[in-house]
Amino acid sequence: MKLEQASRQLEALGNPTRLQIYRTLVRAGHSGLAVGGLQERIGIAASTLSHHLKRLVDTGLVTQERQATTLICRAHYPAMHALIGYLADECCADAEDVVAESTVG
Q1: Residue 21 near residue 38 (C-beta atoms within 8 A)
Q2: Of 14, 89, 97, 105, which one's alpha carbon is 20 to 30 angstroms from that of 4?
């Protein structure tokens, strides 16, 4: 994952409504939720939901699939895992330097 992509995804999740939508879809599992069901759970207007979903879809965090007349939204778990991995990949990578600096002084 590149810095720019991670930045866009984190920016999208930085909005409280989008974060709530995303967490709701993550909780729904691989079957996802129909837009109507998602709207009921979140309690926002359809146009507002559509706006926020577009942003999540554009960043790759959410996928949508049409099943007849129903639009199913799903958290895109590979993107979620990639973002979490990007944030954690270098965890404590410089820890020895920090420990060495704090023991020298």
Answers
A1: yes
A2: 97
Residues in the chain: 105
Helix (H) or strand (E) holding 73: strand 70-75
Neighbours of 86 (CB within 10 A): 16
pLDDT on residue 95: 80
Residue 64, H or E segment: strand 62-67
Predicted local confidence at residue 105, as pLDDT: 54
| Phi/psi-derived region of residue 15, left when phi > 0, alpha when psi is between -120 and 50, beta in every other case | beta
Distance between CA atoms of residues 91 and 74, nearest Å: 29
List of residues 6+ apart from 5 with CB closer than 8 A: 59, 60
Where exactly are the structural domains of the chain?
3-104
Fold of 3-104: Arc Repressor Mutant, subunit A (1.10.10)
pLDDT given at position 96? 72
